[in-house]
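[job 4471] stage=fold_predict status=RUNNING
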Amino acid sequence: MNEALRRSAAHVLVANVEDPQLDSDALHHLSRVLRLRRGEPVTVTDGAGQWRSVTFTGDGVSVSGGVETVARPDPVLTIAVAPPKGDRLEWLVAKCTEIGVDRIVLLDAEHSVVRWSGERLDRQLNRLRRVAAEAAMQSRRVWFPGITEPRPALDVLSDVAAAEPGGRPVTPADAAIAVGPEGGWSPKELEVAGSTVTLGPNVLRVETAAVAAAVLMASARR
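[job 4471] inference complete, writing structure tokens
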């Protein structure tokens, strides 16, 4: 990681790094939550590979460094997951973002217990994207992850490795792993899966399995 990113007092998402402007939420966070002083170093990013160093002025930021462009990580790491109940999905999204996952695909599996539609789906996706953005800023990412609306598991599994006890070990060639619901994959879903991989000898909760898969893939990519 670039030292300026690592050492900045805060890392903020902006619409345009060429002319960085803080929205009211970002300004409140820097001035009221973090209580930054004028002159402290901050970095800003567009979440799509560009970032630059700026200086906090009290009511905004002033440019202090040129625009830097970072290539998109290769390979792109994907976690496909059947959402768990409660706030565990938000925790999953935050931790997978911090680890370096590039795409989170939500799944409707045959044994799924969480299913969204209509306005509730829109609210949940907006909330998850905010969680991902906050985690990306905290971890100094310049490429923010994408989160896709739920897709039928049967449409996704043929292109990914499904996490399943008894599967093969995760290898550096695995850049997309799917984690099923607490009730497990159905026989039909396992039949269409490209392959199955093990995440260890123990039975894991959905969010733990997703983080374990993310760590294994991110470690292999590095």
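[job 4471] summary: The mean pLDDT is 95.
[job 4471] exit 0
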